[in-house]
Structures are given as structure tokens and as C-alpha cells.
Design goal:
Strand content: 25-35%
Number of domains: 2
Bound molecules: uracil
Shape: elongated
Number of helices: 7
Number of strands: 19
Largest sheet: 9 strands, mixed
Distance between the termini: 41 Å
Helix content: 10-25%
CATH architecture of the largest domain: 2-Layer Sandwich
CATH class of the largest domain: Alpha Beta
């Protein structure tokens, strides 16, 4: 089966840059297909047959990359910030490939962030249907009572609907704060912060310690490592890593979903709408307790 891809996608999948950048290069006439300049980003390409070049150099599909970064507080998960604030890309400069974060962490949240150039993998982890658990260490304002704890566990009403049941464990109380471990299976925008606000508290510090079975472990803040094959498989399904390396899993072009705002990969599940959540995963119980640190600015950069 022949797998067609749009020209901008071929360039971004080769790890040369984002799709937005690719569209600019195409528009500028720097890209040729079979020796002919093409200035339409949506031009269909058969990567197995067509010769694509950027500035005269052949473009080849990049190997799949799966990273785990310990994001420090004070870094954005976007590519560029109009205000010039640091982004996680400054921490992975040495990678030499374009990867994107799987979901996002707030500026003030630290902890585990997965980055990849495997869009199918990212979609699988983020799709709320798969309920990938994500575990956080939370320092909450005030000493929470049992009634507040139960509300967090059972689900609270936010402006975008009720949250799913969560696993919430009190680690310790301090004079005027509570340390909790929370595992949720959605990934809505600022979800943990909003949940705490809904029960009359406030997040003072937030660290993500695990996604599914993958834990931050002993990784130093500001540093990254490659995910193990077993970790990729545990997150996305047996043999995912092998198939990803064999590349390129056949994938039909995106089709509009009738009556819906999103898009659907012809083989995959429905794509997340804004405020969506996570995906399927292993059964982390967040046993990183005591190992993950509440993180400040980075001490070290890879
Ligand atoms: N929940 C939040 O409130 N913020 C994050 O960064 C992640 C989860």
C-alpha cells in the first residue's frame, strides 16, 4: 500500500523543523519534488517514490525519537515565546532533531515531559479514551480536610465538566500546607490547579512524577534521556517501538470528521479536542514518592 503524505509533513517528519517552518520553506520556493519547485504545502508526496529536496539536499525520513525531559519550572512547552521566555527546546538543543511535547506542562510546573517526532504515538498517549494515568506531587495551600480529599478523589465540577475519579494520597501535612500525590487520567488544561481551587485550596508547587509506567526516577532537573524500548511499548502497545523503527507505519491522510470540529486519522482514534486528556497506559501507582523533588530553576543543562 502506498502512503501519501503532504509535502509539509514530509519535511517535518524528516526532523528538519516544525510544520509551520516547513510551510514557510515551501512558500519560499526552497523545496523541490522530483526536480520541480513546489510551493503548495498540501502537495501530495509518495515518500517511497518521490525525491524531495530542501535547498538542493535530499530529505529523508528521520528515525523516531522518544525522549523524557525533566522540565524545570520557568520553561514553556511551546516552541517559541513572543515574550522571549525560555522554552524546553533550549534544553534539548543537542538532540539535532525536531520533536514535540506530548501534552503540556504549565510554566510553573516541573517534572516529566515526553517529547517525540512520532505523531501517532503522541496522539495515543494524549487521547483521553486510553486513560493514561499521570501522577503529580502537589503542595497545596492549607491543611486539607478529609471532605476536601474525598471531593478530589470522587471528582469535582470544573467549568469544562466533572473530573474523573482520581487517586489522591496525603503524604504529609505541614504547618499551612498539605503534600499530596495525585494520579489523574485526563490532561485538561491546568487540571490539577483547577481541582485544588475547586475544593478551596491552591497549588503552591506542582511536579509531574510519572506518565503511565514511566517515572522521572533519578533524572536530573533540566536533563533528558531517551525512553527505553520497554517504556515506549508499555505506553503505546506491545511492539510499538519495533514497528516505529521499521517505519513508516501506513497512515492515510487526515479526513475531516463529519459534523465534528476535529480531525481523524483514518486508522486511529478520534483526535483530542482542546482541553482533552491523556491516553492509555500502564498502571503507575506513582511510586516515585520521596524521589521526585519539588523543582526550582535548572541546576544543570545537558
Ligand atoms: N495540571 C496542572 O494544573 N498543570 C500542569 O502543568 C499539569 C497538570
Amino acid at each position: 500500500m502506498r502512503t501519501l503524505k503532504t509535502l509539509d509533513r514530509v519535511l517535518s517528519k524528516a526532523g528538519l523543523g516544525s510544520r509551520t517552518e516547513a510551510r514557510k520553506w515551501i512558500g519560499a520556493g526552497r523545496v523541490q519534488v522530483n526536480g520541480k519547485v513546489i510551493q503548495t504545502p498540501d502537495h501530495w508526496v509518495d515518500p517511497g517514490k518521490d525525491e524531495v529536496t530542501l535547498d538542493g539536499k535530499a530529505v529523508r525520513a528521520a528515525e523516531k525519537a522518544y525522549l523524557l525531559l525533566y522540565k524545570p519550572k520557568g520553561y514553556l512547552t511551546t516552541y517559541k515565546d513572543p515574550e522571549g521566555r525560555p522554552t524546553v527546546y533550549a534544553l534539548i538543543e543537542d538532540l539535532g532533531r525536531h520533536v514535540v511535547p506530548v501534552g503540556r506542562l504549565d510554566l510553573d510546573t516541573s517534572g516529566l515531559l515526553i517529547l517525540t517526532n512520532d505523531t501517532l504515538f503522541a496522539e495515543r498517549i494524549m487521547n483521553p479514551e486510553f486513560k493514561v494515568p499521570k501522577t503529580y506531587l502537589v503542595k497545596a495551600a492549607g491543611v486539607l480536610g478529609e471532605e476536601q480529599m474525598e471531593r478530589l478523589r470522587n471528582g469535582v465540577e470544573l467549568e469544562d465538566g466533572w473530573t474523573r475519579p482520581a487517586v489522591v494520597t496525603r503524604l504529609r501535612n505541614r504547618e499551612n500546607s498539605t503534600f499530596l500525590e495525585m494520579t489523574i487520567t485526563e490532561g485538561r488544561n491546568r487540571q490539577v490547579r483547577r481541582m485544588l481551587e475547586a475544593v478551596g485550596s491552591k497549588v503552591r508547587k506542582l511536579v509531574r512524577t510519572a506518565i503511565g509506567p514511566v517515572r522521572i526516577g533519578k533524572l536530573e532537573i533540566g536533563k533528558w534521556r531517551v525512553l527505553e524500548r520497554e517504556e515506549v511499548n508499555a505506553l503505546a502497545g506491545e511492539d510499538w517501538f519495533k514497528r516505529a523503527k521499521a517505519d513508516d507505519r501506513p497512515r492515510a491522510p487526515r479526513k475531516p470528521v463529519p459534523g465534528g470540529g476535529g480531525t481523524r486519522d483514518a486508522r486511529g482514534p478520534r483526535k483530542r479536542q482542546s482541553g482533552g486528556g491523556t491516553g492509555r497506559g500502564g498502571g503507575s501507582k506513582g511510586d516515585s514518592r520521596g524521589r521526585a523533588r519539588f523543582a526550582g530553576r535548572p541546576r544543570a543543562k545537558k
